[in-house]
């Protein structure tokens, strides 16, 4: 990846005048260097050096355009310098801390975990000792774990001693000869790490003095890739090839990339994805029934309004108000489902376009864009580290180019337990990831893989599979034991070090003559494995070491891999990984800084910190976020999502949402945890409009869209870029953005601002088709990634500090949006409101899987959190009523329904009481069961059933799943949704903040029954409304039945009408009743107390309101009553 950092090299830091001198020479030069740029329409325009200098800025469109020269027989890539390797290993072995009003520090760690480390380049790995006297450092190692010796004499030397020798004498301490290859710290020596050749300038001169700052990479060294761009040098096919001067101004924009597409044009162009419409035999009747039901519903409500029940106007009025609201709510939910679609991808085409070797790419280096994967966790007690570690392992083993993948774990709790668990996972990945690649393992979450009950040898053909699996299973069991033992290990280690500190303090007090009776004041610190204080949260909270008060922490646990495959051997690892790529993706642990007095904005703030840190370290143009309990179940799911982003027309896709699938759900799915009606019905339908909503996890984002920019608009870009000397700047993407106000929007990090145009360019689809008006040339992303250095990591630490977002637009326009507990929906809404579209990617094999609460109480609290966020959205500026014209009508209705659906609870609760009130009062919602009323009711019911059957057909949802969804809709609507409305109103009116606790993801105590949580009954006030509704309807049915039997003129029609609707309510509450019964019908005492109290109270209240006929008071103060 090309870098835009203007960070000077070490020599430039020592000699500040050198850079200024070069700038003076460059500005005084009279030579003209031609620049070329491809516009969105396909034309090439040229820009002179003077034009760029006069503009006062270097556009991101030039700065991110890099050229890669492929290896040829006379052009073999050289290894990166020893200094670069040493610096990168130093970065990966150091823990960086910093924050507000504090210096960023790099703590070089001897080891990160107490157990033996498997990965050769992790801190604590076994290695040779430095041969320098009085030095206890370790010798530098390469990716295979072999010692790196900078001199031919093979004198073993550590990184610090090597840098000291280079700085002082430049002589090897072993053989006393000068180190060969003096490009370790030389600004004028070319960098051949990308395989570039040194070509002469067009005029035959060296051209060094007249080049722009673009020629210098992040370490200040000469970059031939950028040099070739400025001089229009060309070499080989498939690169960012600039056409001849005559072709540069051609009128036909489709002919602008002839040089760069010679190979791709040899094959017929094929799309990466296809849209599959729903069969007309299903969708046409479906739409017709929606129209019929809508018309009949209007006639029905009109008839109901014109025919009131004069005997019970109060009952009629309540029923008609509820029915009108239900009709409005049904329209908001049903109309956006008019255009459902299915999609398919072609992974073979993706491989042909991006991964196949070719004459210009003999090594088969991938041209796919980079991908940064985010995993967020906050509390290791409620989110077990083993679950998070398995998620990380599934990500590291995903089928995607290793050098293009980076994984970031955000620990919002700053816990040492999470840190060491991730280090253990990184160490175990050294075996697990190559094992998955060798035997094509699915799923690549070890816990899920070893728990699969099917035959593991199915479709496995390698003879050593059984032996390898047995060995990996044993290693994984030991890994789990180490993870489970970490809390006790950390506690014992901290107690031992704290006791040692107390002894030191006591000894000091004795030596200083202090009073020995005074208590010893030693902080109860939490200690890392290398015997130093953990900079995050301590077990015993202290100043600067509490959950809401600690420094920012960042460590690159696994450094960026090499650009080319690193094949294993029979002797490299415990297993035989011959012809298997043993590289691991980059893994970064991050815990953002937290300080008292700052609003850290919960998960949204953590996600924004991940976005900024990843932009500095890897800057993948696409980001994929997970909750810690969701893992990759299909290793090729990422590639399927990339098919949409890289396809023609993919430049205006802001995110790819994958459906959420869950494990550990009871077979009957009592509380509709799978939520298939939403994920397979509503989301698939929205995919045919403007795209599905963002649901918090399992979503692949375009980084440029997250930054708050509008989608590319080809017509306006073409109109704006009509001059051959006009540069493409950030203002072309956002006309309201002044380049001088970039810090106001994104913060004061120059590296972050400069990474934005790079991410935008690298996220474009391939310009391999005339219809692609906003693409990039093939081969532009085969450039090796720049190695990390300490200054870059220090910059990443600064952007995760608590003060960085002050007076910026992070959380308002940029990144995840603040102000709602459902920040995911709001963030997706903002993108759609700016004109972006999203795509719903349903894979044949589930893409990702996670866990969901199967306990009734936990499920209700989860729904409460979602509904409260919807109420907040309704009362905020994110209400879809206030959306811009870029939001399509059906999409607007869907978002409006998101904010309105919790308010249905008020009408739903009232409507659930109407059958009981009807039975108790002896009146029905209509005066008589008119034929017209029954006809309307029958047609509406038949339409409802037919719509459900057709929706089951096109969505693939089972009829039982649909019924479970209907049941839980009533359960949640009468409990959690009502509480959400109350809490939302309290926040809006009184300003009372709402706090939610994390849903526990730990298993139940009963390990023999994986569904033990299902039977746990934990009382919550949310259960009161459904219990009251159920008891009132049961009592009303009994009372009405008794009254009808003993009545002189029984009115069975009214009883049947009321009893039918009461039964409808009770049938929906059946799963709730089963949840209250617990295991083996163990019902909490509180349920019987509530039931009895409510039954007695309602009975006495009814007798007081409507006393039995013929009852007269008796003398003596007593009275009697009889049940009707």
Describe the 3D structure.
By secondary structure, the chain is an alpha/beta fold. The chain has a domain at 344-454 and 464-501 and 523-712 and 729-852: Spore Coat Polysaccharide Biosynthesis Protein SpsA, Chain A (Alpha-Beta Complex). The protein is globular, with a radius of gyration of 34 Å. The N and C termini lie far apart (83 Å). 47% of the residues are buried. The active site is at residues 412, 824. Mn(2+) binds at residues 603, 627. UDP-alpha-D-glucose binds at residues 376, 382-383, 412, 602.
Radius of gyration over alpha carbons? 34 Å
- End-to-end separation in angstroms reads 83 Å
β-strand percent reads: 5-15%
Shape: globular
Give the total of beta strands: 21
Fill in the CATH topology of the domain at 344-454 and 464-501 and 523-712 and 729-852: Spore Coat Polysaccharide Biosynthesis Protein SpsA, Chain A
Q: State the CATH class of the domain at 344-454 and 464-501 and 523-712 and 729-852.
A: Alpha Beta
Helix content: 40-55%
- Indicate the low-confidence ranges by residue numbers: 1-80, 182-265, 718-728, 1111-1124
Largest sheet: 10 strands, mixed
CATH architecture descriptor of the domain at 344-454 and 464-501 and 523-712 and 729-852: Alpha-Beta Complex
Number of helical elements? 35
Find the CATH superfamily of the domain at 344-454 and 464-501 and 523-712 and 729-852.
Spore Coat Polysaccharide Biosynthesis Protein SpsA, Chain A
């Amino acid at each position: 990846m090309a870098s835009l950092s203007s960070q000077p090299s070490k020599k430039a830091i020592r000699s500040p005048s050198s850079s200024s001198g070069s700038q003076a020479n460059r500005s005084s030069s009279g030579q003209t260097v031609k620049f070329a740029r491809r516009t969105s329409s396909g034309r090439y325009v040229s820009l002179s050096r003077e034009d760029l200098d006069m503009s006062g800025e270097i556009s991101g469109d030039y700065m991110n355009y890099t050229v890669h020269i492929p290896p040829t027989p006379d052009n073999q890539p050289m290894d990166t310098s020893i200094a670069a390797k040493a610096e990168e290993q130093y970065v990966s072995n150091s823990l960086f801390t910093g924050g507000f009003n504090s210096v960023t520090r790099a703590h070089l760690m001897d080891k990160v975990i107490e157990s033996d480390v498997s990965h050769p380049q992790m801190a604590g790995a076994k290695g040779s000792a430095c041969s320098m006297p009085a030095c206890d450092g370790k010798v530098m190692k390469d990716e295979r774990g072999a010692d790196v010796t900078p001199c031919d004499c093979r004198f073993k030397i550590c990184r610090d001693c090597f840098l000291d020798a280079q700085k002082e004498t430049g002589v090897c301490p072993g053989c006393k000869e000068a180190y060969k290859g003096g490009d370790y710290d030389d600004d004028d020596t070319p960098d051949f790490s990308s395989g570039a050749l040194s070509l002469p300038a067009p005029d035959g001169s060296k051209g060094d003095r007249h080049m722009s700052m673009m020629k210098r990479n992040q370490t200040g060294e000469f970059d031939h890739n950028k040099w070739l761009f400025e001089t229009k040098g060309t070499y080989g096919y498939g690169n960012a090839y600039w056409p001849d001067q005559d072709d540069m101004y051609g009128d036909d924009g489709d002919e602008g990339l002839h040089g760069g597409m010679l190979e791709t044009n040899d094959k017929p162009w094929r799309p990466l994805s296809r849209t599959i419409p729903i069969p007309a035999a299903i969708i046409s009747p479906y739409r017709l029934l929606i129209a019929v039901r809508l018309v009949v519903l209007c006639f029905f409500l009109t008839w109901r309004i014109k025919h009131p029940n004069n005997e019970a106007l109060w009952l009629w009025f309540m029923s008609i108000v509820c029915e009108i609201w239900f009709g409005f709510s049904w329209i908001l939910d049903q109309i956006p489902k008019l255009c459902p679609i299915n999609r398919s991808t072609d992974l073979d085409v993706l491989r042909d376009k991006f991964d196949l070797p070719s004459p210009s790419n003999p090594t088969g280096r991938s041209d796919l864009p980079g991908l940064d994967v985010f995993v967020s966790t906050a509390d290791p007690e409620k989110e077990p580290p083993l679950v998070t570690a398995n998620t990380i392992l599934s990500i590291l083993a995903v089928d995607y180019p290793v050098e293009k993948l980076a994984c970031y774990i955000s620990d919002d709790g700053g816990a040492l337990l999470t840190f060491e668990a991730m280090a253990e996972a990184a160490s175990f990945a050294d075996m697990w990831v190559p094992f998955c690649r060798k035997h094509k393992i699915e799923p690549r979450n070890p816990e899920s893989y070893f728990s699969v009950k099917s035959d593991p040898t199915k479709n496995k053909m390698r003879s050593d599979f059984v032996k390898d699996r047995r060995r990996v299973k044993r290693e994984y069991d030991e890994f789990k034991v180490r993870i489970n033992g970490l809390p006790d290990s950390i506690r014992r280690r901290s107690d031992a070090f704290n006791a040692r500190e107390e002894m030191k303090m006591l000894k000091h007090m004795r030596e200083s003559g202090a009073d020995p009776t005074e208590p010893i004041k030693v902080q109860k610190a939490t200690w890392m494995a290398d015997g130093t204080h953990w900079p995050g949260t301590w077990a015993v909270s202290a100043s600067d070491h509490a959950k809401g008060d600690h420094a920012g922490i960042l460590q690159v646990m696994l450094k960026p891999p090499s650009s080319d495959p690193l094949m294993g051997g029979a002797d490299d690892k415990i297993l035989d990984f011959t012809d298997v790529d043993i590289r691991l993706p980059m893994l970064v642990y991050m815990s953002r800084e937290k300080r008292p007095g700052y609003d850290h904005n919960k998960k949204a703030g953590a996600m924004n910190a991940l976005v900024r840190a990843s932009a500095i370290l890897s800057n993948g143009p696409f980001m994929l976020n997970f909750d810690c309990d969701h893992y990759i179940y299909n290793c090729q799911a990422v590639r399927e999502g990339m098919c949409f982003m890289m396809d023609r027309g993919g430049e205006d896709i802001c995110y790819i949402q994958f459906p959420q699938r869950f494990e550990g759900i009871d077979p009957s799915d009592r509380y509709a945890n799978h939520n298939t009606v939403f994920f397979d019905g509503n989301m698939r339908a929205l995919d045919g409009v403007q795209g599905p909503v963002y649901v918090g996890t399992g979503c692949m984002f375009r980084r440029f869209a997250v930054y708050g920019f509008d989608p590319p608009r080809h017509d306006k870009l073409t109109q704006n870029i009509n001059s051959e000397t006009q540069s493409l700047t950030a203002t072309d993407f956002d006309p309201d953005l002044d380049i001088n106000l970039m810090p106001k929007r994104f913060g004061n990090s120059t590296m972050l601002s400069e990474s934005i145009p790079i991410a935008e360019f690298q996220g474009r689809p391939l310009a391999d088709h005339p219809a692609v008006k906003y693409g990039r040339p093939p081969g532009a992303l085969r450039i090796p990634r720049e190695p990390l250095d300490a200054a870059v990591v220090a910059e990443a630490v600064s952007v995760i500090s608590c003060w960085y977002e002050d007076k910026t637009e992070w959380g308002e326009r940029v990144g995840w949006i603040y102000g709602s507990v459902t920040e995911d929906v709001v963030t997706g809404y903002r993108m759609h409101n700016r004109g972006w579209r999203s795509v719903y990617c349903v894979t044949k094999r589930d893409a990702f899987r996670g866990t969901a609460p199967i306990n009734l109480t936990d499920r209700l609290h989860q729904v409460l959190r979602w509904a409260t966020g919807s109420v907040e959205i309704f009362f905020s500026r994110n209400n879809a009523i206030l959306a811009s014209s870029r939001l399509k009508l059906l999409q607007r209705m869907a978002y409006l329904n998101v904010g309105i659906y919790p308010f249905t609870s008020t009408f739903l609760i009232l409507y659930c009481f109407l059958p009981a009130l009807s039975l108790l009062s002896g009146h029905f919602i209509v005066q008589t069961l008119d034929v017209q009323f029954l006809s309307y009711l029958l047609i509406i019911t038949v339409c409802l059933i037919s719509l459900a059957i057709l929706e089951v057909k096109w969505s693939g949802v089972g009829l039982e799943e649909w019924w479970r969804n209907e049941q839980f809709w009533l359960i949640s609507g009468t409990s959690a949704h009502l509480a959400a409305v109350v809490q939302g109103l309290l926040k809006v009116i009184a300003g009372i903040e709402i706090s939610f606790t994390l849903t526990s993801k730990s298993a139940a105590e009963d390990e023999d029954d994986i569904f033990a949580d299902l039977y746990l009954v934990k009382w919550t006030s949310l259960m009161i409304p459904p219990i009251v509704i159920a008891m009132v309807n049961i009592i009303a049915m009994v009372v009405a039945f008794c009254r009808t039997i003993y009545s002189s003129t029984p009115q069975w029609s009214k009883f049947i009408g009321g009893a039918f609707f009461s039964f409808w309510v009770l049938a929906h509450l059946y799963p709730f009743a089963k949840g209250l019964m617990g295991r083996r019908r163990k019902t909490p005492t509180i349920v019987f107390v509530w039931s009895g109290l409510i039954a007695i109270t309602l009975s006495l209240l009814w007798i007081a309101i409507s006393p039995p006929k013929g009852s007269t008071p008796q003398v003596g103060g007593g009275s009697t009553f009889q049940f009707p």
